[in-house]
Inverse folding.
């Protein structure tokens, strides 16, 4: 009549799968993933503005290509005018400013900290589940031993009672031995197994969320690296533009530098866009896996 055994058996009679603690954890995971998707949508909007600013650089270079060559085409603008127009486009790029504002980085840090906190909660929950699973396994072994020992003790006592010629005692013990003690043992073991299966189901959900959170953190790390790299590239372009504003000869030198850096700048924008898309896909895939674990719990 161990009260701990009674508590475990009674706990397994309710629907353990619908655990309030697990529900709160799942709810927090999905809220965090939605916040991350919102942040990535904001990042995509910033990248669209960056790509629009790229057009200004292309227009500046196109101005310079007009009339280039030994023979100037009829109607082409003089070189001085072309440089002036190109400088105007470069100044528009500079005036567009940095698309990655302090608010953008504050949103990034908030999302990143949310994922780190969720990862800590999931690790703690998984350790608790591992401890419960080990306890249930131990109780299943103990309950099996207890019921087998009980049945054997009844048989031994009935034989002893018969040997000492105590018919009433022997009759009572024989009746007790005829009770379905083995069936009761199987019933208790089935309840403990249901509880163990539910705990394994919880662990599968937690593991899926843990993997998804870890992947999201790695993706966000890659996003931050690419954003920092792109910021450096934008700053370098602005430096070239500031150089071009120092005089007519400086315009030519500054624009030549812009030409050299434009391809790297465009690749940085494309890399960041691809990483943001990959992060969005990973998050949606992880949400789907977690939902499948919840919809299809163990029997």
């Amino acid at each position: 009549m161990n009260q701990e055994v009674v508590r475990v058996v009674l706990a397994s009679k309710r629907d353990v799968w619908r655990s309030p603690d697990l529900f709160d954890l799942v709810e927090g995971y999905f809220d965090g993933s939605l916040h991350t998707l919102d942040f990535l949508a904001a990042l995509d909007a910033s990248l669209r503005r960056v790509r629009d600013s790229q057009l200004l650089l292309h227009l500046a270079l196109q101005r310079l290509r007009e009339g280039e060559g030994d023979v100037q085409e009829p109607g082409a603008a003089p070189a001085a005018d072309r440089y002036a127009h190109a400088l105007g486009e470069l100044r528009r790029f500079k005036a567009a400013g940095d698309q990655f504002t302090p608010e953008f980085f504050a949103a990034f840090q908030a999302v990143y900290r949310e994922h780190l906190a969720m990862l800590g909660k999931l690790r703690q929950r998984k350790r608790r589940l591992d401890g419960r699973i080990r306890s249930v396994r131990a109780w299943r072994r103990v309950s099996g031993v207890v019921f087998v020992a009980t049945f054997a003790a009844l048989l031994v006592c009935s034989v002893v009672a018969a040997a000492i010629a105590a018919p009433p005692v022997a009759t009572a013990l024989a009746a007790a031995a005829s009770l379905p003690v083995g069936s009761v043992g199987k019933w208790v073991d089935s309840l403990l197994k249901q509880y163990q299966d539910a705990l394994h189901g919880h662990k599968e959900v937690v593991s899926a969320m843990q993997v998804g959170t870890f992947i999201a953190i790695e993706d966000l790390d890659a996003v931050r690296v690419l954003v920092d790299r792109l910021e450096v590239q934008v700053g370098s372009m602005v430096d070239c533009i500031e150089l071009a504003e120092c005089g007519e000869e400086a315009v030519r030198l500054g624009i030549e530098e812009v030409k050299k850096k434009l391809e790297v700048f465009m690749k940085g924008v494309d890399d960041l866009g691809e990483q943001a898309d990959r992060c969005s896909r990973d998050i949606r895939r992880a949400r789907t896996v977690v939902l499948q674990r919840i919809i299809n719990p163990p029997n």
Remarks:
- Residues 24-126+203-295 form a domain with the Methane Monooxygenase Hydroxylase; Chain G, domain 1 fold (CATH 1.20.58).
- Helices lie at 3-13, 20-65, 79-96, 102-163, 167-178, 181-244, 248-295.
- Residues 173 and 220 are 70 Å apart (CA to CA).
- Confidence is low (pLDDT under 50) at residues 12-16.
